[in-house]
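Sequence dictates fold. Below is an illustrative record:

_____
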Amino acid sequence: MKNSIAFALIALVSFTFFPAEANDPSENANRIVYEQVVKEPEPPQGVKPLNQKTTYPRQAIKNDQGGWVHLSFNVEPDGSVSNVEVINSRGGSVFERIAVRNVKAWRYEPSPEGTPRDVIRGVQRVLGYELGEVTIFEPGESELFEPRSIQPIKRPVRFPARAARKFADGWVHLRFTIHSDGSVSSPSVIDSFGGEEFEQAALRDVVRWKYEPAPEGATRPDIQNFEQVITYVLEGAVARNKFLDRYNQSADYLEDGELAKAKAELDALRKELDLNSYENTFYHLAYARYFLANGEGIKALNAMRNALNRLVWKQMAGTKKQQLKSLLPFKFKIEAGHGALRDALQTYEDMKDIGVAKNDKDVQEIYQALVGMTQNPQPFGASGLIINGKWHHRPLRREFGFRSVNGKLETIFVGCDYHTAAIPFELGLTWKLPDHWGNCAIEIRGAEQSSFQIVEYTG
């Protein structure tokens, strides 16, 4: 009897990118840009601006680059601007230089003749640069910091008592909002393993969490769609002999090309055992191998995501570094081969962290191809398939559309650091995610087994 899990990498049937036509009049005839509504800034102490001319850096337009600059300045009695300083920015010095130069040339209403006023100090504005246009708005309405840098102060977690009595374990992948005072609200479950009792415990615990608040006297926008995984793992979790028997039998059938028998073993395994988190990982890995062998690459990608949810394995105590050295290259190749480029690039960075990427020739060749794609302005596509009512995609570019839809897509859920939207699906439209929404992920919801292609554009 085999007493350990053996996982061998298998070659992808094909390593395929999905080029998209740059101009498809039938499917991209219209464009919808979902923009955040920005209020006109209040005049400082009622003093109205006379000239707020702005310019967009030519090089940034050429490179299709966006960003923002948060500045402070004083308004002098004669209406001129002085002491212009950069507080924060995104996009580099090219935006900072032009923002400072523009603001120094601004003019406000001068003091009425005979009634001089004091200098108005510490006026703050944000200049947002996007799609060749410049928008001026209040600091509280833009992305002024990296949300992932916010540190937790208190994160109590309680292991569900009933699950502990059953020696069960699991994990829950959550999405929630962090407010300016550090409190948490609006939690929802993205994915989970272990059953409803873990989900209920996680939802109950997370609303009691506390993150560091905004500095005193400062404002900070709510951080929407912040993601966190709570793992409930019992020490010493291992694969049981009954699991190993079926798992290795399935692997033998796959190696011999007997796919129907391999699937039957995996189906029986799920029915006969309540899998622990360790076994669940390898169960989905086995299914990923089965789907690849059966020519179902998109289902293989979904199975691999279930097996190696990144936020889960980085926290899971039972995950061994040596196992990751063989599993992450497999994950990387599936992601890259099916258009999940942002995920693949992140997996590559994870491989570098554990020292596995450098000496793998295949990985390096694929990585160089990915880098070439990111630098190429031509559109590229990723295949998608609705499984359990939804399909997740993290776009590499800010603009996307759909084509080759087979079935029914209903809603596009957009979850960003600073914005959330549920958008009715309509074929033939292109959506643009504004830079000041922060990092975004999209979830396509629709009829089961509906297939499609997401096409990403440079704008």
